[in-house]
Write a structure and sequence with these properties.
This protein has about 240 residues and is mainly α. The chain folds into two domains: about 5-160, Ribonuclease III domain (Ribonuclease iii, N-terminal Endonuclease Domain, Chain A), CATH 1.10.1520.10; about 170-235, Double Stranded RNA Binding Domain (2-Layer Sandwich). It has eleven helices and three strands; from the N terminus they run H-H-H-H-H-H-H-H-H-H-E-E-E-H. It has helices spanning about 5-15, 25-30, 35-40, 50-70, 75-85, 90-100, 110-115, 120-135, 140-160, 170-180, 220-235, and strands spanning about 185-190, 200-205, 210-215. A three-stranded antiparallel beta sheet has the order 1-2-3. Helix 6 (about 90-100) packs across helix 8 and helix 10 (about 170-180) crosses helix 11.
């Protein structure tokens, strides 16, 4: 049974987001509970935000896609996909989560709390997606749209004007640094053709695992193609772009 204090916390968060009183407080409680808490307290593996995060990720992409579709009627699919890839990255979601003070409402196990879990990019991004999942199940899709439109207004303008969306290497590096602070590693695996017309084959790896390969007439071009494929593998870009 949820105590009164926790209910008041959830109400305070939702009120700050202009979201009406919830029908199901337990949904939001789960959305704001880290797995370290359920583990330390020997609770069910379902009593944290992981399942809601899965749903929230889909809701987020739908709402962002709809927003970009309406805002940029002159953009083709590829351009919209590039902007969306940056918007839904952990780094950007964590920025939104910080802006609404989400970290203060997440319940952590003692070890995760002591290690700075409340400020970790991955925790903030995941909890934000879970919150969207809870709102969706609670019948608040209109509030999700309103909240995201407000958050995205300036945000998307900055992304659209930046070069990040056109630079796959930069986008991949931003993504991997946000998710554990690692850097992509590029390796030339093959060179072919005469010296005046070389073709380069380059692999990119993350944590020792190959996630993309690119082919180009220069190492720079091949690296960009490898990074593009890696982003597709990591579900940040559509392979069909």
């Amino acid at each position: 049974m949820m105590d009164k204090t926790r209910k008041q916390q959830i109400l305070a968060l939702l009120k700050s987001l202009n979201v009406k009183r919830p029908k199901d407080y337990d949904l939001y409680d789960r959305a704001l509970t880290h797995s370290s808490y359920t583990y330390e307290n020997k609770l069910s593996a379902f009593d944290n935000y992981e399942r809601l995060e899965y749903l929230g990720d889909a809701v987020l992409k739908l709402v962002v896609s709809e927003y970009l579709f309406e805002r940029f009627p002159e953009y083709r699919e590829g351009e919209l996909t590039k902007i969306r890839a940056v918007v839904v990255s952990d780094a950007k979601l964590a920025e939104i989560a910080k802006a609404i003070g989400l970290g203060e409402y997440i319940v952590f196990g003692s070890s995760e709390a002591k290690s700075g879990g409340r400020k970790k990019v991955s925790n903030l991004a995941c909890a934000f997606e879970a919150l969207l999942g809870a709102m969706y199940l609670d019948g608040k899709i209109l509030e999700i749209r309103d909240m995201m439109c407000e958050q995205l207004e300036t945000f998307v303008t900055e992304i659209d004007m930046s070069k990040t969306k056109d630079n796959y290497k930069a986008a991949l590096q931003e993504l991997t640094q946000a998710d554990g602070g690692v850097l992509p590693v590029y390796r030339t695996v093959k060179e072919s053709g005469p010296s005046h017309n070389r073709t380069f084959h380059i692999e990119v790896s993350i944590n020792g695992e190959m996630v993309g390969i690119g082919i180009g007439k220069s190492k720079k071009e091949a690296q960009q193609q490898a990074a593009r494929q890696a982003l597709a593998v990591l579900n940040e870009l559509s392979e069909g772009e």
